[in-house]
């Protein structure tokens, strides 16, 4: 009998990630992964209790990758960094982007809160956002995320004109972020004057 193939946990996660990026997270099954790896399900069950645990590992890989993309931008503007990272993800992984954004996704709930806190901490370091309370920064972040998700979905679904390249998308995203901050600052000043 030939020796059984051994696969590392990382190889199994990478195989599941490949399925997720081409078919979606919910399409990950033990059978598909074992077919992809050319093995039985035994090596998968050695590393994971069930498919749900494996899906969590895939989501963690995706979150880690998106955070790495954000940190690589390092522009000093968290909105630009988030925007560029989400647009790159939508361009490279449209199926996974649609899956994450369009479906109620139980896998990302914990990460979403953690990332919001991390982004607000980054926002506090931006001079243009000085003087805003944490609650105001959360509102600004939410408004920007709403715009960014819409733009990201348009990219993932290829709904933008062909000439609308990454540079144009980044310019638009930066412009909207600036508009949101200016409007928030004006509203804050207006409310202060009315007290």
Topology overview:
Layout: H1 9-23, H2 30-37, H3 42-47, H4 51-73, H5 78-92, H6 94-102, H7 109-123, H8 134-156, H9 166-193
Helix pairs in contact: 1-2, 1-4, 1-6, 4-5, 5-6, 5-8, 5-9, 6-8, 7-8, 8-9
Task: Name some characteristics of this structure.
195 residues; mainly alpha; Arc Repressor Mutant, subunit A
Brief overview:
With 195 residues, the protein is mainly α. It folds into two domains: 1-60, Homeodomain-like (Arc Repressor Mutant, subunit A), CATH 1.10.10; 74-193. The protein has helices spanning 9-23, 30-37, 42-47, 51-73, 78-92, 94-102, 109-123, 134-156, 166-193.
Written description of the protein model:
Residues 6-66 form the HTH tetR-type domain. Residues 29-48 bind DNA. InterPro entries: Homeodomain-like_sf (IPR009057), HTH_TetR (IPR001647). This protein has 195 residues and is mainly alpha-helical. It has 2 domains: 1-60, Homeodomain-like (Arc Repressor Mutant, subunit A, Orthogonal Bundle), CATH 1.10.10.60; 74-193. It is 73% helix and 0% strand. The protein is built from 9 helices and no strands. The model has no long low-confidence stretch (mean pLDDT 86).
User: Percentage of helical residues?
Assistant: over 70%
What are the segments in which pLDDT stays under 50 over at least 5 consecutive residues? none
Mean pLDDT: 86
The biggest beta sheet reads: none
What global shape is seen? elongated
- How do the SSEs run, as a string of H and E? HHHHHHHHH
Our measurement of the CA-to-CA distance between the termini, rounded to an integer number of angstroms, reads: 83 Å
Contiguous helical run count: 9
Strand content: under 5%
Tell how many strands the DSSP assignment holds.
0
State Rg: 20 Å
Q: Class by helix and strand content? A: mainly alpha
What number of domains?
Answer: 2
Organism: Siminovitchia terrae
Keywords: DNA-binding
Protein name: HTH tetR-type domain-containing protein
């Amino acid at each position: 009998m030939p020796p059984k193939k051994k696969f590392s946990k990382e190889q199994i996660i990478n195989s599941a990630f490949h399925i997720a990026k081409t078919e979606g997270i919910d399409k990950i099954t033990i059978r598909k992964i074992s077919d992809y790896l050319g093995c039985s399900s035994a090596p998968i069950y050695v590393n994971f209790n069930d498919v749900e645990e494996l899906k969590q590992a895939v989501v963690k890989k995706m979150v880690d990758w998106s955070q790495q993309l954000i940190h690589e931008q390092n522009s000093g503007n968290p909105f630009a960094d988030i925007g560029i990272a989400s647009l790159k993800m939508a361009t490279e992984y449209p199926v996974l982007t649609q899956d994450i954004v369009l479906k109620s996704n139980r896998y990302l709930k914990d990460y979403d809160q953690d990332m919001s806190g991390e982004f607000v901490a980054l926002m506090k370091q931006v001079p243009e956002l000085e003087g805003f309370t944490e609650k105001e920064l959360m509102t600004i972040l939410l408004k920007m995320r709403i715009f960014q998700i819409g733009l990201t979905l348009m990219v993932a679904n290829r709904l933008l004109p062909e000439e609308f390249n990454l540079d144009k998308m980044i310019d638009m995203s930066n412009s909207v972020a600036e508009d949101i901050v200016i409007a928030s600052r004006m509203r804050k000043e207006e409310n202060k004057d009315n007290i």
